[in-house]
Amino acid sequence: QVQLVESGGGLVQAGGSLRLSCATSGRTFSSYTMGWFRQAPGKEREFVAAISWNGGSNTYYADSVKGRFTISRDNAKNTVYLQMNTLKPEDTAVYYCAAEIPGRIGVRRASQYDYWGQGTQVTVSS
Questions:
Q1: Which of 40, 41, 42, 80 has the alpha carbon at shortest distance from 64?
Q2: Cα–Cα distance between 6 and 23 in angstroms, integer?
Q3: Is 102 in contact with 53 (CB distance < 8 Å)?
Q4: What is the pLDDT along the chain (126 residues), one digit of tens a residue?
Q5: Using an 8 Å Cβ cutoff, are 120 and 8 in contact?
Q6: Beta strands, E only, the chain
Q7: Which of 64, 71, 105, 113 has CA atoms 20 to 30 A from the CA of 99?
Q8: CA–CA dist 22, 120 (Å, integer)
């Protein structure tokens, strides 16, 4: 069983930055593809970013965050990060970290992930 715990959310003004962290338990963190999703009130959960298991050599982003957000991982710390810059009010949502076990194909659908954190609130004021 893998446990994921997000942190780093909060309230920030438009144009500001936040860095989310997701700490995971277990000894197999390096073998998981890791993703970030978000869900705003009344909306479906949507893909934000993902990073591959192989040392993070591959990264993927939603068009809405490309160029503003950066995903990274530190396998020594069993942690994945989401650096969010130039935040906009439309980035307001609960942000979730997720882990995908080896063998899955694709990274952009929530159904492809096996483990989820509890979420952290990000609120961007205008």
A1: 40
A2: 7
A3: yes
A4: 889 999 999 999 999 999 999 999 977 898 999 999 999 999 999 999 999 987 778 999 999 999 999 999 999 999 999 999 999 999 999 999 999 998 888 899 999 999 999 999 999 999
A5: yes
A6: 4-7, 10-13, 18-24, 33-39, 46-51, 59-61, 69-74, 79-84, 93-100, 115-116, 120-125
A7: 64
A8: 10
